[in-house]
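Entry 14. Structure prediction run on the chain below.
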Amino acid sequence: MYKKSNKLEHVRYDIRGPILEEVQRLEALGHSVTKLNIGNPAAFGFAAPQPIVSELSQELANSHGYSDFRGVGPVREALAEHYTQLGIAGIHPDDIYTGNGVSELIVMCMQGLLNDGDEILVPAPDYPLWTAAVHLGGGRPVHYLCDEQSDWIPDLQDIESKITARTRAIVIINPNNPTGAVYPKEFLVELMKLVRRHRIIVFSDEIYDTILYDGIEHVPTASISDDVFCITLSGLSKSHFLAGYRAGWMVLSGDKAAAKDYIDGLNMLASMRLCSNVPAQFSILTALSQRCTDAFRFPLEQLTRQRDAVYERLNSIPGISCTKPKGAFYAFPKIDTQRFGIADDRQFALDLLRDKKLLVVQGTGFNWPDVDHFRIVFLLNQPLLDQALTDIGDFFAHYHVDSDAAPLPLAAAFR
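Output returned:
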């Protein structure tokens, strides 16, 4: 018997979780499944900007060898200039690390920081890779609550109440996945005061920083303070529809002298993987250039219409409510669990899949503590999205779990 590592005992990633086995079974039977579970723009018909594709093909001849372990020099120089213009002080190209997507860098950050039992504050709900990476690094994720009644802005009192002597850092996801919240500057100012007081690191996940609605402005967390050590993470997967290129980066700012030993660890880990994908790094250079900016416009009007449709249609369903997303391309509606008798949100997601052939992700998959939410992606084109919302409404019109009949566990349902 060959068993998986004990480090994986608490690791979950339900966005691509066990319910996909049921999707595969249904598809093998000839059913078409509408997948509202993952923010992969290419799967919904969004194509990469042509200037990036053209430039990348020309750079292939220059991409045969390894780059510097942090990344290609001109790419890091361009990113340093970009973040300086966004108001982050003291950025040098050596403070920039490219990665095979942001995901690799998240894991690297946790591995380089954590000793067994160290704690990281992570939002609830969160993008589950953060919680998984903390577990893999031997740490303990401590989830602070985002307040649905306040547009999903994190609760500062709850954050401070959960800081202990073992707290090493806090994770901020802004704009937030899965809620679509965008944090106002006033909140970030107060957060940085708290962080400075407790001398902890900030990891700011800003992968959706250009996908904003209703004139909302995104404020980079690191621009609030030049003395708090902060690592900002972003990439091109969402903003430029380049999820498959795996083009991500992280930016170190603030009190780098206090973090020198940690940075040495990050350098070691970055060196061990030799470098990130070199052709993908050149796509970053093109994405930041004026010629790409002039040729590429994110279809924000289209996404705004789809966001509005999701918000209005979900709130029209009896027993469902939804806070309007201000960024990203997800909605995180709330379910009246008493009305529908829901005690297991994974079972609810499975029932929706089987009944309407719609794949969503249950709220507990984002480390939300209750079974009363789910996430959907609204990248689907308008006619298909309208049909999906109609199907969700029809489903809830008749859905109720019989409390006397225990549903099959997911593992048993797949056999």
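The domain at 50-294 is CATH 3.40.640.10 (Aspartate Aminotransferase; domain 2).
Filed with the rest of this week's runs.
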